[in-house]
Amino acid sequence: MAGTVRNLARLSVGWPSNIFVRNNYLNFYRCLYSERSLGLQGYENARLNFRNQFLNVENTFRTKMQEVCSQESSMIFTEDLKSMLHLAQKKPEDIELLVKMITKFNNQNKEMRFGNYVFGPVVMRTFYYLDEPDLALTAFKDPQFEEFFDQLSSHQILLSLLYKHGKYTEMKDVYSIIKNKFTSEKGNPRTTLVLIMAACYKENTPEAFEYAFNIWKEMNQKGNEFMRRAIAFLAGLAIKQNAPHIAIEIISTMRTARFPDTRSLKVLAYTDLKRFTEIVPILRISLENYRTVGPKEVFFQDVVWFQFVH
To answer: Which residue range is the domain that position 250 belongs to?
Structure first.
């Protein structure tokens, strides 16, 4: 066993810096979704374009929009709101004007709007860029914007922003709203569950574990599939909450466990259960696979050393 572990330790050096978690496997921090996947890189590029377009008339535009917002008969057009969303700076007067424009635009008669531009994700990207989690949450929960942010990408951006600021309780509130609004026609909000499981993992309390485990059981009963990363967070939380037997059961529901995170979690869980004979075949298969051509079955370095010292 010790020899097998030493071999795995040599093989796994350097790998953790390139995947899902780094350093201490059960005590890590990393943004769950990249700026590119959230559309933030494209948004920032668009901001540069708008700043160039409004180079000498930016203040004039703001003054005009203030006038439009104060006049009941005036309208906020699609291009007006798009422009302000990409010009807004993190200062009270800009944020106040932006909120007024969003509200007025949303309240306008739908028949009078031009085009089918979906603003929800762009507004959330703006709030993310301006680092305004409370404002984003308030807007999302406001009944007048019930359908304005009714897109999975809006939910994902909002939850990512709340996660970034450690607002885990608020994330659960958002998930509750999403779940209540959810219909089968819209698909399964699996990406939101990754963030919710991550929030529960960070909380690491018995209550958080019960909450997350109940979601998993409900999804399982309905035949809905959990994303691998969501399962990894839940299994990791189970281990931290001294329930390695549950972690094993959760991982066993995956179609394939041939990923470094799930494979390492199985080893940790079996170690906590003192079932070392279950670990040997896992390590042996990985060693045999390492000699073949193709992707290698590796483990996180911390997990391997954890086995070695035990």
So the answer is: 193-309
